[in-house]
Write a structure and sequence with these properties.
By secondary structure, this protein is an alpha/beta fold. The chain folds into 2 domains: about 190 residues, Flavodoxin domain (Rossmann fold, 3-Layer(aba) Sandwich); about 30 residues, no CATH class. About 40% of the residues lie in helices and about 15% in strands. The protein contains 8 helices and 7 strands. Strands 1, 2, 3, 4, 5, 6 and 7 form a 7-stranded mixed β-sheet that branches. α1 packs across α6 and α2 packs across α4. The N and C termini lie far apart (about 60 Å).
Length: about 230
């Protein structure tokens, strides 16, 4: 197939930086540019959508407390659902990714990102936090069952003048493009979806036809059978 006939890759850039200017956003932007360049070398184009989590702060409390998703949260989830790949970057606070970053991904349905290709990145003021990406962020995305690239990117203050940072960014970008080109997400979910232990409501509504009034379901919910039997 001629590559010109293929649709562009959809990449969502999730940035948890809150300062302006933000080194976390700068890292996310550099990754996005290198992903576009790596795809272009293979004759592919990329549509990039920037998702700045600070814009979701007014809706975050309700999402965490009750699961109620406001319009911005809903739009963000729809973007992630349809994305071919994701770039996720966070600032490091208190030796871990920011609460805004972790809270956003904790709100998401556990099944939303199954096999989604992801590049992880983080920024901090000191190199002492370099293991946060692989020690904490990667474990979160493993729980969400994403396909994280082998290369993650960490940038401390002194790294921005180091050519090695650019090499890591290029390597991570190339790995993301390879994962998207392989269509790994579709291949895994198309063949293995039924073998996952889904949460109620996570299968797109397919399981919502369950008869909740059956004797078995009433018992499972702690109710009683007709006549008061348990």
């Amino acid at each position: 197939m001629n590559t010109s006939d293929l649709r562009p890759f959809r990449v969502v850039v999730v940035n948890a930086g809150v300062s302006d200017p933000s080194s976390t956003k700068m890292l996310a932007d550099r990754l996005a540019l290198r992903v576009e360049a790596a795809a272009q070398r293979d004759g592919r184009t990329v549509e990039t959508l920037n998702l700045d989590l600070r814009e979701l702060l007014p809706e975050l409390g309700a999402a965490l407390a009750s699961g109620h998703l406001g319009p911005k949260f809903t739009k963000a989830i729809e973007a992630l659902k349809s994305a071919d790949g994701m770039i996720a970057t966070a600032p490091v606070y208190k030796a871990g990714p920011s609460g805004l970053f972790t809270s956003f991904f904790q709100v998401l349905d556990n099944d939303l990102l199954i096999a989604k290709p992801v590049v992880l990145g983080a920024t901090a003021g000191t190199a002492r936090h370099a293991l946060v990406v692989d020690g904490e962020m990667r474990s979160l995305f493993a729980f969400l069952r994403t396909m994280t690239t082998p290369t993650s990117v960490f940038a401390s203050t002194e790294d921005w003048q180091d050519k090695a940072l650019g090499k890591r960014i290029d390597r991570a970008a190339r790995e993301l493009v390879v994962l998207m080109e392989s269509e790994v997400e579709a291949k895994i979910t198309d063949t293995s979806w039924d073998s996952y232990q889904h949460e109620f409501g996570s299968a797109g509504g397919n399981e919502l036809g369950i008869d909740l009034g059956s004797d078995l379901m009433r018992l499972a919910a702690g109710g009683t059978l007709p006549g008061g039997r348990r």
